[in-house]
C-alpha cells in the first residue's frame, strides 16, 4: 500500500498542467484528449455520480466553434430513443424491465475552464441535444456545446462536466445484475473532430464506437471489499471512512475506458512471456462458478497475444485484464482497451472451445479495434471482419481439428461427437447459398449503422473474414502476412478507412487486386462456380454420310464399339458461373486410369467447355479443388463424380449438413 501511495504522489507531480505530457513512456498516439475523472458508485440507488475534466486539442487545420459529446446511456432513457426504435431492437419486448431498470445520463453542469486565472464560464444553458443521423427529437445520445471562443488549430480547450448515471439492468453489455456492475460507454465522451473540420459524433444506434486516442486518469469509489477491474493500471488505492474504497486507474494511448466491480470476483494473475514479444501481465477476474476455467482463460489469452503479435504486430501495453462475466449478465464477448470480457459455462469440455473461442476473439480486438482504431460505427468490418479472420487462424494454430459439440436439456448438458469434424468460420460461404442469399442484401460499402435487417452480422463479420481468407489463398501466406502486418504497423493508433487497407493490398500484392476488392466491397454480388454437364463416352465410327475411297457414302450400321486396348473416349466438361461475382478458378479433371488434367479458367464467361480425347473416361471433376475462393456460396456443386458408393455419398451429404448447421449456430451466436 505504501509503495502505491508513493507512486501516486510522484505521478501527481508529473501529470500535465493544462497540457498533455508523457508519464509512462513515449507517446504512441496523438493523445488528442486527456480525461481526469472522479467517480462514485451508489449501489443503493444504482447510480454513478461523476465529474470529469477533459483537455481536448485541435489537431486539424480548422477552427472548432463547438464540441459534441456522446451520452450513450440515454439510449435506455425511454423506448423512443433511436437505439430502441432502430432496425436491431424494433419490436423488442421490455415487459421484463422494471420501472427502476431503465437508465439515463443526466448532465448536471458544463464549464469552460480558461487557461489563465479568469473565472470559469458556465455552458450548461447553451447545451443542446442533436440528432445528426436520423433527426429523432426523442433521441438524446449526442450533446452539443457551443464554445465561448473557437479552438484554433494547434490549441486546446479544457472542459469540466458533472453528470449522473442511472445504471440499467444489463443492456447492450452494460449495466447491473445483482451485485455485478459492468459500466461501459458510460461517461460524456467527446466525438472525433475530423480533418474536414466536421464532428464525427453519431447517435447511439448500434453497439460499435469511434473515439480519439488519449490519456485516462480515473478515480473510482466503490464498496470496500469489492474487486474492481478497469482499463489501465491501478496506481493507488485507499479506504474511506464511509465503507468505500477509491481505486485510481491510469492509462495512456487508448480511446475508451471501462470498469467493472463485484464482491463475487476471484482474482488470478499470469504472465505472457514469449520470445521476441513484449512481456504482458494478465489479470483475470473470475466468477466462482467458473474457477475450473482459470487455466483455459489464461492459455487462450496467451494464444491470441502470441499469434496476433507474431503475425501482425506486438501488443504495446504491459498489462491486460480478462473479465469472466456473471451468469445472465449479457456482458460477455466484448472488447475494450486493455480489458475484455470472455464467457463460458460451468460444464464446458475443451472440445467446445468455450471459453477459448470468445477469449481469443475478444483479446484479438485489442489489435483490430484497440490498436488500429477504425471507425467501428461506419466501417465495422475493418475490425470485426479482420478479427474474425484472425480468430479462426489462431484457433487453427492453437486448437486444431475441432469436432462437433451439441448441448441438450436447454443447453445445460454438453455432448462431444469426436467423429464429426467441424469447419472453421472462414472455411466457406455455404451457409449463404440460395437465390435469396443474405449476402445480396447490402454491399459492405454501406455504412455499418445503415445496414438493413440481417446484414450487419454478415457484412461485419463473416463476409470480410472470407474475403481476407480468399486473399490469403490467392496471394499466398507470405505476401498476405506482409500486407496485414504493414497495414497494422502503418495505421496503429490512427483512424484508417477501407481505402487505406486496399491501398496497402495493392502496394504489396504482385498484381492490382481492385478487380476482386471492388466486387466484394462495393457490390452485393455472390460467387458461385460449379461443374455443369459432363459427357465421357467411347468414340465409335460415325453413323451417316462418310467419305470413302469411292466417294461419299451413307453408313447406316457402323461397326460395333472398339473393344481393343487402343479405344478412345471423348470427354466434354462444362463448367459454369452461376453467381455474378467473377474470380479465376482452377479445374482439376481426374480420369479412370489416374491421369490428371489441371486447367485454369478466368471465370469471366457464364460457361466454358473443356474437351479431351483420352484412352479413359473421366472419373471426377473439381472446380476450385484447393478451395481458394472461400466466398463461393455452394461448394456442393463444385464437384462431379462418375460413381460414388452410397456410403461415400452419405458421408459427403452428412458432412455438408453438419457444416450448414455449424455455420447457422455460429452466425446466431453473435446475436445472443
What does this entry look like structurally?
The chain has 672 residues and is an alpha+beta fold. It has 10 helices and 34 strands. It has 4 domains: 26-263, tricorn interacting facor f3 domain (Immunoglobulin-like, Sandwich), CATH 2.60.40; 264-349, Zincin-like (2-Layer Sandwich); 368-525 and 644-672, Neutral Protease Domain 2 (Neutral Protease, domain 2), CATH 1.10.390; 528-542 and 566-628, Immunoglobulin-like (Sandwich). The protein has an 8-stranded mixed sheet with strand order 5-4-8-2-1-14-17-16. A hairpin with a 4-residue loop joins strand 16 (233-239) and strand 17. The two termini are 42 Å apart. The model is unreliable at 1-22 and 667-672 (pLDDT under 50).
List the helices and strands and how they pair.
Elements: H1 2-14, E1 33-42, E2 47-57, E3 64-70, H2 82-85, E4 104-113, E5 121-122, E6 128-129, E7 142-151, E8 156-166, E9 175-177, E10 180-183, E11 189-190, E12 192-193, E13 199-200, E14 214-223, E15 227-230, E16 233-239, E17 244-254, E18 259-262, E19 266-272, E20 280-286, H3 294-311, E21 319-323, E22 334-336, E23 339-341, H4 356-364, H5 381-398, E24 403-408, E25 413-421, H6 456-475, H7 477-491, H8 498-508, H9 514-522, E26 529-538, E27 544-548, E28 551-555, E29 569-577, E30 585-591, E31 596-601, E32 607-614, E33 618-623, E34 639-641, H10 646-669
Parallel strand pairs: 1-14, 20-21, 21-23
Antiparallel strand pairs: 1-2, 2-8, 3-7, 3-11, 4-5, 4-8, 6-7, 9-10, 10-18, 12-13, 14-17, 15-18, 16-17, 19-20, 22-23, 24-25, 26-29, 27-28, 29-32, 30-31, 30-33, 33-34
Helix pairs in contact: 3-4, 3-5, 4-5, 5-6, 6-7, 7-8
Amino acid at each position: 500500500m505504501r509503495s502505491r501511495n508513493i507512486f501516486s504522489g510522484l505521478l501527481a507531480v508529473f501529470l500535465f498542467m493544462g497540457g498533455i505530457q508523457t508519464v509512462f513512456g513515449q507517446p504512441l498516439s496523438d493523445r488528442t484528449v486527456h480525461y481526469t475523472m472522479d467517480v462514485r458508485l451508489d449501489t443503493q440507488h444504482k447510480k454513478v455520480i461523476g465529474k470529469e475534466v477533459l483537455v481536448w486539442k485541435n489537431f486539424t487545420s480548422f477552427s472548432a466553434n463547438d464540441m459534441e459529446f456522446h451520452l450513450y446511456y440515454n439510449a435506455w432513457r425511454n423506448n423512443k430513443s433511436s437505439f430502441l426504435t432502430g432496425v436491431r431492437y424494433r419490436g423488442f419486448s421490455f415487459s421484463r424491465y422494471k420501472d427502476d431498470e431503465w437508465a439515463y445520463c443526466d448532465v448536471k453542469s458544463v464549464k469552460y475552464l480558461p487557461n489563465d486565472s479568469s473565472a470559469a464560464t458556465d455552458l450548461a444553458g447553451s447545451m443542446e441535444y442533436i440528432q445528426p443521423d436520423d433527426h429523432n427529437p426523442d433521441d438524446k445520445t449526442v450533446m452539443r456545446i457551443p464554445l465561448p471562443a473557437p479552438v484554433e488549430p494547434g490549441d486546446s480547450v479544457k472542459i469540466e462536466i458533472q453528470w449522473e448515471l442511472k445504471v440499467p439492468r444489463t443492456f447492450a453489455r452494460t449495466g447491473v445484475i445483482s451485485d455485478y456492475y459492468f459500466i461501459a460507454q458510460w461517461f460524456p465522451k467527446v466525438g472525433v473532430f475530423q480533418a474536414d473540420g466536421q464532428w464525427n459524433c453519431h447517435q447511439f444506434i448500434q453497439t460499435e464506437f469511434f473515439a480519439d486516442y488519449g490519456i485516462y486518469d480515473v478515480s473510482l469509489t466503490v464498496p470496500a471489499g469489492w474487486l474492481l477491474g478497469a482499463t489501465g493500471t491501478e496506481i493507488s488505492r485507499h479506504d474511506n471512512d464511509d465503507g468505500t474504497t477509491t481505486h485510481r486507474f491510469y492509462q495512456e494511448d487508448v480511446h475508451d475506458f471501462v470498469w467493472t466491480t463485484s464482491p463475487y470476483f476471484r482474482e488470478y494473475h499470469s504472465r505472457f512471456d514469449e520470445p521476441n514479444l513484449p512481456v504482458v501481465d494478465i489479470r483475470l477476474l473470475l466468477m466462482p462458478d467458473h474457477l475450473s476455467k482459470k487455466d483455459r482463460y489464461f492459455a487462450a489469452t496467451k494464444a491470441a497475444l502470441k499469434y496476433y503479435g507474431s503475425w501482425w504486430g506486438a501488443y504495446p501495453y504491459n498489462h491486460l485484464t480478462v473479465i469472466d462475466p456473471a451468469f445472465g449478465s449479457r456482458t460477455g464477448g466484448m472488447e475494450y482497451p486493455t480489458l475484455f470480457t470472455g464467457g463460458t459455462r460451468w460444464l464446458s469440455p475443451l472440445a467446445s472451445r468455450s471459453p477459448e473461442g470468445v477469449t481469443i476473439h475478444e483479446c484479438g480486438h485489442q489489435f483490430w479495434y484497440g490498436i488500429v482504431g477504425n471507425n467501428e460505427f461506419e466501417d465495422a468490418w475493418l475490425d470485426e471482419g479482420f478479427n474474425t479472420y484472425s480468430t479462426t487462424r489462431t484457433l487453427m494454430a492453437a486448437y486444431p481439428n475441432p469436432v462437433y459439440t451439441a448441448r441438450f436439456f436447454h443447453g445445460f448438458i454438453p455432448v462431444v461427437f469426436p467423429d464429426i469434424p467441424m469447419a472453421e468460420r472462414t472455411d466457406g460461404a455455404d451457409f449463404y447459398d440460395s437465390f435469396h442469399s443474405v449476402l445480396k442484401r447490402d454491399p459492405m460499402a454501406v455504412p455499418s449503422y445503415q445496414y438493413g435487417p440481417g446484414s450487419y452480422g454478415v457484412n461485419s463479420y463473416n463476409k470480410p473474414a472470407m474475403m481476407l481468407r480468399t486473399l490469403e489463398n490467392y496471394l499466398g501466406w507470405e505476401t498476405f502476412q506482409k500486407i496485414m502486418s504493414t497495414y497494422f504497423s502503418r495505421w496503429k493508433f490512427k483512424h484508417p478507412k477501407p481505402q487505406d487497407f486496399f491501398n496497402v493490398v495493392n502496394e504489396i500484392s504482385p498484381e492490382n487486386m481492385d478487380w476482386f476488392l471492388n466486387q466484394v466491397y462495393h457490390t452485393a454480388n455472390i460467387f458461385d462456380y460449379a461443374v455443369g454437364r459432363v459427357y465421357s463416352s467411347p468414340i465409335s465410327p460415325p453413323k451417316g454420310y462418310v467419305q470413302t475411297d469411292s466417294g461419299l457414302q451413307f453408313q447406316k450400321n457402323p461397326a460395333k464399339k472398339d473393344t481393343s486396348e487402343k479405344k478412345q473416349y471423348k470427354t466434354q466438361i462444362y463448367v459454369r458461373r452461376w453467381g455474378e461475382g467473377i474470380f479465376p478458378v482452377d479445374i482439376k479433371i481426374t480420369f479412370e486410369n489416374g491421369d490428371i488434367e489441371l486447367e485454369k479458367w478466368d471465370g469471366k464467361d457464364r460457361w466454358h467447355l473443356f474437351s479431351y480425347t483420352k484412352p479413359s473416361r473421366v472419373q471426377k471433376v473439381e472446380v476450385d479443388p484447393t478451395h481458394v475462393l472461400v466466398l463461393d456460396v455452394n461448394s456442393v456443386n463444385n464437384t462431379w463424380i462418375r460413381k460414388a458408393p452410397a456410403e461415400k455419398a452419405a458421408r459427403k451429404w452428412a458432412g455438408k449438413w453438419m457444416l450448414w448447421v455449424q455455420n447457422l449456430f455460429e452466425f446466431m451466436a453473435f446475436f445472443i
